[in-house]
Amino acid sequence: MFNMAASMATATEIRKLRKKLRQIENLERLTRQLDEQETVKISKKYDLRERLQELLKQEENETFSSQRDPESTLSSLSSESFGEEAAQVSGKGDVSLGTRSANLNTSAGEGGNMKDKVPESHGKVVSSPVTDQPVTEEKSDKASKIAKKGNISRSDRKYWDQLSVSVCELDGHNDMVTALSVQGTTLVTASRDTTVKVWDLEKREETGSLGGHTETVTSVLIISPEETAALTGEGGDEGGKDSYIVSGSTDCTLKVWSLKTGKEVKSVYTFSPVTCLDYCYTTHLLVTASDGGKVELWDLRTAENVCSVRAHEEAVTGVKVQQNTVISSGADGLVMVHEVRARSLMRVFVSEDVKLTSGSGKVHQRMIRSLAAAGHTVVLGDDAINIKLLDWKKGVVSKLVNHVSEFASTDAVCLWDDLLFSSSYDLDHGTGYINVRAFSSREYLATLDDEEMEGTDRIVCLACTRLPSGNTVIISGGPQLKLWELIPPGQSAPESSDEKWVIVTQFLPELSRPAQDSEAESEADDTDDDDANDDYREKRKEDGDYDEETKSWCTIV
User: Which of 328, 232, 222 is nearest to 275 (CA)?
Assistant: First the structure.
């Protein structure tokens, strides 16, 4: 009985520590300035995490002891009943501790060591043009077939088993990178340090810094040279083409920049903080979203706001354009789909009554943190163990496991060339990593994790492109800005890479299993995460700085 009580106490304290760490991580993600009390709370993060690691080790020892001692079975069962963070048993009878670290050295083979595994065959990345247009499901299938070389495709797990990865950190921003946009070898980043920066991915260096915003830059987008020429009415030869960069900020402005000169072309006051943006090429309109729930259309030629709708009750967390369809996600947990008709937005779908494709579990509406789209499939990330794939035409949702622990977050998802990249944040260790799946088959392929080196913090944005060499490079943003270049077998890492930053891919068996129903978390767990925002909203109301109608943090001065 003593062992059972001790296990219950340990599991309870672990859960409390994880909730505190999640609240701290949510505070760190805020774009506003923190007050003194919140700053003190954040300062306790490392002590809390250290205590959590001690308890997890203690729980691991208790679980191991109970399995060796048949008389302790009751204690083991009691500990397991307190949540999925307790020990889990795999289909082979092996014990998984519900944490990524227990599986870092698990290879795709049977019991092999992934870190020591030497590739037996070679594969090549087939080069193909890179465009800014969203991936469609039809293009994904075609890309998967084109990529095949020697019967091994980029959507095949064998291909990923053979890869090494060159990891490079780009220094330049003084605070968190919040958004990315890539065009060929040109990368543009937005940051909480109020700047927009331009990078050359081939040279791995900063080529420009654009200053003008006064608060966090939340979103950034490169508009194609052809569309830029149409907007400006200028032609010119191939070498003279320019591209517009559009950035949005919590300072309630949109800014348009020239990629060629680095100069600000125009600035537009939006009356609400901009949370995200995308571009509708079929109608030549910019789409923006705000923290007040609005989705708006802008004509960049005239800087005119041509349409504004209140799509969500809370902040819009993501917006993607597919042809003339605008897909948005919100902190209210909903996905909205609008069609652009005659320069207006007509709602055609809302995800209030969606069903699961299998099982009897429900789809819990929690804050959506990340969004990607291809055709009528929408990929959603939140604070649950799974990522969700919504077919908005059919109104059904399927799930894919994205974390080895229930206490994790999916802050970024990216679709590219029949591949689905998703970030995962390990709350227990404070580290982030990237999972890779074949989009068409939904098969889990690999995980990119440099924890054995310096490690990566939370990843809040992802992008992908192909270098002139033919190699694929994944860009991740957050507290660090990193490049993850995929190196085929037999090919040397870039000369600029330090040998210690070349890693191999990993395979985490938990992520290849059917999705679990993680929707049983209590409402209290979700609302606790938003306490800081709620308190701040009330304070702004008292100060007269918050407009309930628009839910805008801005005032006109």
Answer: 328
pLDDT (tens digit per residue) in 209-244: 999 999 999 999 999 999 999 998 876 544 458 999
Domain ranges of the chain: 2-97, 137-512
Per-residue pLDDT, 66: 65
Per mean pLDDT, which range of 71-85, 319-333, 469-483 is the poorest? Answer: 71-85
The mean of the pLDDT values for the chain is: 79
Is residue 96 exposed (0-12), middle (13-18) or buried (19+ Cβ within 10 Å)? Answer: middle
| Class of the CATH domain delimited by 137-512 | mainly beta
| pLDDT at position 34 | 75
Give the long-range contacts of residues 74-83, CB within 8 A, separation 24 or more. 74/4, 75/3, 75/4, 75/7, 76/7, 78/4, 78/7, 78/8, 79/4, 79/7, 79/8, 79/10, 79/11, 82/8, 82/11, 82/12, 82/15, 83/11, 83/15, 83/406
Reply yes or no on whether the pLDDT at 161 is more than 60: yes
Distance in angstroms (rounded) separating the CA atoms of residues 214 and 197: 15
What are residue 505's phi and psi, to 5 degrees?
Answer: -70, 160
Structure token pair of residue 409: 């977050």
| Mean pLDDT confidence for 158-168 | 92
> Amino acid identity, residue 479?
P
Q: CA torsion angle for 502, 507, 510, 515 (degrees, to 10)?
A: 100
Q: Looking at residues 450-463, what average pLDDT do you find?
A: 91
Q: What are phi and psi of 228, to 5 degrees?
A: -60, -40
Residue, of 92 and 198, whose pLDDT is higher: 198
Whether residue 21 contacts residue 48, with contact meaning beta carbons closer than 8 Å, is answered with yes
How would you classify the pairing of strands 335-341 and 325-330?
A: antiparallel
Query: Helix H segments across 327-435?
Result: none
pTM of the complete model: 0.77
Q: How many CA atoms within 13 Å lie on the side-chain side of 252?
A: 13
Alpha-carbon gap, residue 269 to 291, rounded angstroms: 15
How far apart, in whole angstroms, are the C-alpha atoms of residue 65 and residue 86? Answer: 14
Amino acid at 502: V
